[in-house]
Design brief:
The protein is of the alpha+beta class. It has helices at 19-34, 62-71, 77-107, 112-125, 155-162, 173-187, 216-226, 231-234, 244-319, 324-345, 357-367, 372-378, 383-396, 406-414, and strands spanning 12-13, 36-39, 44-47, 50-52, 131-133, 146-150, 192-197, 207-211. It folds into 2 domains: 12-242, no CATH class; 349-415, Winged helix-like DNA-binding domain superfamily/Winged helix DNA-binding domain (Arc Repressor Mutant, subunit A, Orthogonal Bundle), CATH 1.10.10. Strand 3 (44-47) and strand 4 form a beta hairpin. Helix 1 (19-34) packs across helix 4, helix 3 runs parallel beside helix 6 and helix 11 crosses helix 13. The radius of gyration is 52 Å and the shape is rod-shaped. The protein starts with 11 loop residues before the first strand and ends with a helix. The structure holds zinc ion. Residues 154, 156-157, 170-172, 195, 198-200, 206 line the site of zinc ion.
């Protein structure tokens, strides 16, 4: 393992084996920023012909956190802090990536270590912090990438320190974002940084660990064990995720799609159940109708049996020489049979009531509202014949001597 040994580079301390490369890129960056042109009339600042903007440091650190805390005071400190943290990390990470890309092209750099080496100098000249890379670092272009480094004079820690406010969480989130953005662009590997110790919360230095997103948590845990960092402090270390909000939005979207599918599935199921219920209902109606029909048929058969099997014999008996007493009994018998059958007759169709074919024709025409005279013409018989048929029909239907309209009665049989 390399022994910690820092160089006498102006603004960047790096392990010995990297010094040569760093010195070369640092000189390039130094020259780049020496050609400055401020042009307030035009409202522009340029270095080597590239336009820059100046931003007051505290407005992007402590004051930004304060403003968000005020804006989100109804949602609590934790949510306000997370939002500030994620926002600043994403912005700084994006700037770091873009600056790196632009610089690599200007310097015509292709080697990842050379690309990395330009970062700290650029970082220092643009006023973010100076950089001190620990020799335990392993900057390689794959998932094993590991960088442990300090940012002395971090603009973010200073903003808090100057307000005399000691935090209970690491504050140098833009430092984390920018450096991981630069290195990600240098090595072509996804990288994120967490600040494990921070001067703003009273630690000795602002120290960062950068690794692949899948490895970072493990690296932090290892470091905290070795550095005897208390669990209380360890659990307050924010592990950033570049554009976490996008992942959350995607998850939300996926969840929405999942819910919509679930609702559709349940709706389909309900529709099918409704269909089955409707079918069952129709089947039930058919069965009920059949039962009603059967009941009606049973009544009709009962009536027919009485009319055909009993009544003729009674009528024949009435023609014989019977005594007065027997006549009274016979009358009573007829009356009783009439009483039993009359409630059944009401709803029965005329064809079961012993109507002759001619009587059925007349009954049908009467039911259809044809007057006697017309019926007589249609059936080519006399009006008297029709009157006679009507009388017989009324008798057979049990309407004799009753104040019931024949047509209405025939219509009611159809219901
Ligand atoms: Zn810090």
């Amino acid at each position: 393992m390399n022994r910690i040994s820092y160089t006498d580079l102006d603004m960047v301390n790096v392990p010995k084996n990297l010094q040569k490369i760093f010195r070369r890129t640092q000189n390039y960056v130094k020259n780049y920023f020496s050609i400055a042109q401020q042009n307030p009339e035009k409202g522009s600042i340029e270095f080597s012909g590239e336009r820059y903007i100046l931003v007051r440091a505290a407005s992007m650190s402590k004051e930004f956190f304060d403003m968000m805390a005020l804006l989100y005071k109804d949602r609590g400190k934790k949510e306000a802090r997370d939002l500030s943290f994620n926002f600043l990390f994403d912005i700084a990470h994006s700037i770091g990536k873009a600056d790196a890309k632009s610089f690599f092209s200007k310097m015509k750099l292709t080697d990842p270590i050379e690309k990395l080496s330009a970062g700290p100098a650029h970082f220092a000249y643009t006023g973010w912090a100076s950089v001190k890379i620990h020799p335990l670092s392993n900057p390689v272009p794959d998932k094993n990438f590991y960088l442990i480094y300090d940012h002395p004079y971090s603009f973010e820690a200073q903003a808090w320190e100057e307000k005399g406010e000691k935090t209970n969480f690491p504050v140098c989130v833009m430092n984390s974002g920018y450096s991981s953005g630069w290195c990600e662009e240098s090595f072509g590997v996804s990288l994120v940084t967490a600040e494990v110790e921070c001067r703003a919360k009273g630690d000795r230095y602002c120290r960062f660990i950068m690794a692949h997103p899948s490895r970072l948590k493990g690296c932090i845990t290892d470091y905290c064990k070795k550095a005897y960092i208390k669990y209380d402090h360890y659990k307050k270390i924010d592990i950033p995720e570049f554009f976490k909000r996008k992942r959350l939005q995607d998850e939300l979207k996926d969840h929405k799609v999942h819910l919509e599918k679930l609702i559709q599935k349940r709706t389909d199921k309900l529709t099918k159940t409704n269909q089955r219920l409707e079918e069952a209902n129709i089947a039930l109606k058919v069965v009920l109708k059949q039962m009603e029909q059967k009941e009606k048929n049973d009544k009709e058969n009962f009536l027919i049996n009485i009319k055909q099997s009993i009544m003729p014999y009674l009528q024949e008996l009435a023609q014989t020489d019977i005594s007065r007493g027997q006549q009274v009994l016979l009358d009573q018998l007829e009356k009783n049979i009439d009483q039993i059958t009359s409630p059944l007759i009401g709803k029965l169709s005329s064809k079961y009531l012993n109507l002759t074919p001619m009587e059925i024709k007349v009954a049908t025409l009467v039911k259809n509202g044809v007057v006697n005279k017309e019926i007589a013409q249609i059936l080519t018989v006399s009006l008297n014949t029709i009157t006679s048929h009507r009388y017989k029909i009324r008798t057979k239907l049990g309407l004799k001597n009753k104040n019931i309209n024949l047509r209405s009665y025939l219509l009611s049989l159809e219901e």
